[in-house]
Amino acid sequence: xxxxxxxxxxxxxxxxxNDADNIVVLTCQGRRGQTAFIEGQRLTLRQDIPGGxxxxxxxxxxxxxxxKYGHPIGTATRDIAPGEHVHEHNVGTRLGEGDADLxxxxxxxxxxxxxxxxxxxxxxxxxAGYRRDPGRPGxxxxxxxxxxxxxxxxxxxxxxxxxxxxxxxxxxxxKVLEHPFxxxxxxxxxxxxxxxxxxLARHPNAAGVLLAGLGCENLQIPMLIERVGPEPRLxxxxxxxxxxxxxxxxxxxxDAAPRYREPFPASELCIGVKCGGSDGYSGLTANPLLGRFxxxxxxxxxxxxxxxxxxxxxxxxxIAARVVDRTAHDDFIALDRWFREYFIRHGQPVYENPSPGNxxxxxxxxxxxSLGAVEKSGNAPVTQVLRYGQSALSGGGVQIVFxxxxxxxxxxSLAASGAQMILFTTGRGTPFGTVVPTIKVSTNxxxxxxxxxxxxFDAGRLLTGQTWEAATESLTGLxxxxxGGERAAHERKGIGEIAIFKDGVTL
Length: 507
What we know:
Blueprint: E1 14-15, E2 23-26, E3 35-38, E4 41-44, E5 54-56, E6 65-68, E7 71-76, E8 85-86, E9 91-92, E10 126-129, E11 142-147, H1 153-163, E12 174-176, H2 187-201, E13 206-213, H3 221-228, E14 234-238, H4 246-256, E15 262-265, E16 270-275, H5 286-299, E17 303-306, H6 316-320, H7 326-345, H8 356-360, H9 366-373, E18 382-386, E19 397-401, H10 407-416, E20 421-426, E21 438-442, H11 445-450, E22 457-458, H12 468-483, H13 489-492
Parallel strand pairs: 11-12, 11-13, 13-14, 16-17, 16-20, 17-19, 18-19, 20-21, 21-22
Antiparallel strand pairs: 1-2, 2-5, 3-4, 5-8, 6-7, 7-9, 10-15
Helix pairs in contact: 2-3, 2-10, 5-12
């Protein structure tokens, strides 16, 4: 990607992402009559264009593809003159329900993956975590109380508040993972709730887990225990059986928890990557910055979890080209088809995205949003596709996780698959954080300045001269510090939420 400073001196900053592109992206508000030089050619803006939005680099006739990242993101619905604003008023999506014909695996094709653009050494530092036996180390030493049913949320919250003054110094936090489900659910919904909660119960950030049921709900404790498997950090309680044994169970879990952090190599990290509300800078700054970190982490032996399957629509070929074997390829295509059919089953268009906030920020079509979104995992190889609630597998690489694009639902899914932390890019801003440290990376500096209590890292500095190498090194340092105990912005406020995917009837 060309950096802004690589452009010839202009009245207005623009970025040409790929030599094949017929658009450029403005780095700040552009005014009619301002000029930019791209590849030695003058481009004059024909109208005011907001920062993060696109301008035509050349004449784009009606019916011609709009190309960004070297990839089509839509089709011109009328002739678009050089210097004209390119957005939803003159661009249509190319997506439809029958797209993504990626079913053929050709073993003669070499996957387009590998760490090809690293400019600084691989992650050599360690992080200070808590040993778990078995499994990856935790970056937090929490106690998690997981309800099997939503009607006990308030009772558990009150019991935890009563116990919390006794919390020993080596326990970071005590959390009730509140949710509204577990009762009056049938079939696939009940299965998904059980799988998700079981995945959370295995999480390395939990020094101990207390499964707390009521007693009469559909989601019975034995159903969850079977899914969790052998887990020495697990205890259970049924509230209808009586009172008085809640606090002793928390005491027992706390006493069994490790007291101290110890150093671990970066290869022990499992990091989730996620987009929040995108703007026109998401695919230029924050997302590709996460991609560079992902390449470093995978090359160092670590694991990256990626999700938001509907936000891969239109960019499936970019992911498929990085899949390392036939099994993972076929699993990815099946997952993509499931989500397409999910939209169709509910009578919704596959391309019902981007959101109003995305459009305001300069994202025109789902193809454009998807191509920017998949930048978060860089060019690292895709090694596995995980079911909902399935723990990340050994072997590292990028592992694709079942989840839609919704922030809370998808971040919870990443956590349930074992992400010790989540890197969350946002161009619009959000105070959100899930039950694991959620490092929010702003796409632009204005957002970082406006909401310093939400944002952990400003990737907008890439638009004003910071080098990719310096930004990658700075972000890596922050990640290792948070892994070692430094609190993310949402943790400092006590924010930590979960949400469970639902696709069925409620009794």
